[in-house]
Amino acid sequence: MKYKTRFFLFFFVMVLFNLAANFAHPVTPTVIQDLNLHDYMFGLALAAMMLTNFLLSPFWGKINEYISSRMSLLICCMGYGVAQIWFAYATTELQIVLARMFAGLFTGGIFVSFLTYIVNTAAPEDQGKYLTINATIKSVASAFGYMIGGFLGEFSVKLAFLAQAALLIAVAVGFYLICLPDGKTSLKQVPKKQLMKEANPFQAFADSRKFMSVAFAMLFAVNILINFGNTAFDQAFNYYLKDVLGLTSSYNGIIKAAVGLVSFVANTTLCIWIITKTKIRRSMAVIIAVCTVSALGTALVPNIGIFIALGVIVYAGYSVSVPVLQSMITVQSRPEQKNLVMGFFNATQSLGSIAGSLTAGFIYSVHAKLPFFCTFVIYGFGMLAAIGYMRYRGGKNAAE
């Protein structure tokens, strides 16, 4: 199979995965309310998944060197599908938390494997472009997955979960058949003691010292903060539509589809222009500033139409920031460290998402608008971190 054909099919299956991965999100608020669970469960459930995602992401980044990204995708997509069947039939808060934690064991491996497969098998001149395509697919297909899940939820909540599980298992096989093996060492050649060490998630985080620098620390701080802000906003926004505005899952899906269209246009025009034509450090700070101001607007405006429009801007700004930040981190990574760096990148995304989902869930119980104020504050800190990185790199380049 030709190089470009293989990557076209890889991205096509990635679209199917990102569609499926989001079928359950628009119906989750309905599940929580139908089961008479606490409001904070919308945040706690996601945080439970992101916790295990966070702990296992560096491990998957390292284990891919031995079993290859395609084997990880086969294992993780199938495991995720099984986890969603568990979630579909959970009836208590504990069962939901455990099902979400089980899903998190595998979701980290999926997103890390997307990144490691691209950096390991794409030609150097294509890596930036393909990483942008990866981030664009995640934003756009996820939004349309919301829409499909929302309409499935109008017929049956369980239908959304079961359709999700079936498609996840199908794409697991698809990835395995399409992807080339990219492992660098046979697992059989790795001593058991070393393998046990690699399986320790805390050791994997400790190994980040091999590449960590002041510039990396600033970039990962930006990554944590924008994911904190985006997750807090996203979780509260979805639940707010159902709880306060009384909209059904299909409306939630339609709004997310609109977000997907805006994100697609932004990523295929603005994002590429930023990466290729601008001072990317400065552009990153501007993008986060736009998200910050828009988040404040959602917290203050009473008009529903303006509230939704500003929400779309927050989502679109985040979708553009991800490939821009990935590009900044990839350029700074040494070739032999890219798997580890990409694993750590995904882990810091999860860390921000854990904080964001937990915070949004619990403060929503105090007041429904508080998560939107929280998003404004956190994005504000992210903007300051981006400005700090811009000045640090600018000063360093001037000194050189």
Automatic annotation (TrEMBL):
Keyword Transmembrane helix recorded: yes
InterPro entries (UniProt xref): MFS, MFS_dom, MFS_trans_sf
Keywords: Cell membrane, Membrane, Signal, Transmembrane, Transmembrane helix, Transport
Start and end residues of each Major facilitator superfamily (MFS) profile domain: 6-398
Signal peptide as annotated in the record: 1-20
Keyword match Protein biosynthesis: no
Xref: Gene3D superfamilies: MFS general substrate transporter like domains
Primary subcellular site in the record, as a coarse category: membrane
Annotated transmembrane regions: 40-60, 72-91, 97-119, 131-153, 159-179, 211-233, 253-276, 307-328, 340-364, 370-390
Localization terms from the record: Cell membrane
Topological type in the membrane: Multi-pass membrane protein
UniProt protein name: MFS transporter
Organism field: Enterocloster hominis
Organism taxonomic ancestry: Bacteria, Bacillati, Bacillota, Clostridia, Lachnospirales
